Predict the structure.
Amino acid sequence: MGTLWSRSDSSMSLLPERQRSERRGEDRDSDNDSLDGFVRQEDIAQFPYVEFTGKDSITCPTCQGTGRIPSEQVNELVALIPYSDQRLRPQRTKLYVVLSVVLCLLASSLVAFFLFPRSVVVVDDGIHSVTVHFDRSNMKVLMNMTSTLNLSNPNFFSVLVQSVNCQVLYMKTVIGTQQLDNVTTILPLSQIQVNYTVSVAIGGSAPYVYAFCTMPSIKVHNIVVYMQTAVKTSNMVRTSQNSLEAYRYIDCGSNTTWHSHHSAATSRLNLPLL
């Protein structure tokens, strides 16, 4: 049987002794280098992060040179997104802006339409009934005149009727007044009627009126009185006043009741009060 050996051993045997020793030393150095590489990786894994700053460098203030972010600062930090990121360029931006503007205009228009204050419409329905009494000792004619006002609220909110003030004049002389406070509240888009009675007394300075009203030969004892009525209303925005003026024919000789009013002239003024 012949002797077996490897090619490397044969080549080694052919080299001089000095070269063979150097070759064995190189092999041992390479093995040591590989072992040192593994040991160095393990050491680096256990070694903390160190930021090497030069003369013009600044240590990272967030991680403070540790390479890690403290857990208590997670909610306080802001991430930097590149300018070319698609998230900074949302799609349909113009469409969303136009829709937002249109919706805002529509909402403001609806709010202005429903909350814009409108004047309360006041219509004088005239005198409905008159009750007559005679004071023979003082030669006066005493009457109670009941009138009706129709009030319409065109607003989408309630309106308070603060007061109704009426004044009756005969031949430029005040013969009766009446004032009602905190009358009623008109619901939105509704209409109500307000009845009020004014007590008047005619005589004294005009005794001929008593003679005319008590004259039995006359069947109808009509006289003309001038009525001024002011209705003050208020809502959540402003206070306004409606003024009504009219001439009324009344029968001072007996109790009367009308189902329709008779007026010589009527005017209405809407005056906003600051």
The first helix runs from residue 7 to 14. Residues 121-273 form a domain with the Immunoglobulin-like fold (CATH 2.60.40.10). Residues 245 and 267 are 6 Å apart (CA to CA). Confidence is low (pLDDT under 50) at residues 1-15, 259-269.
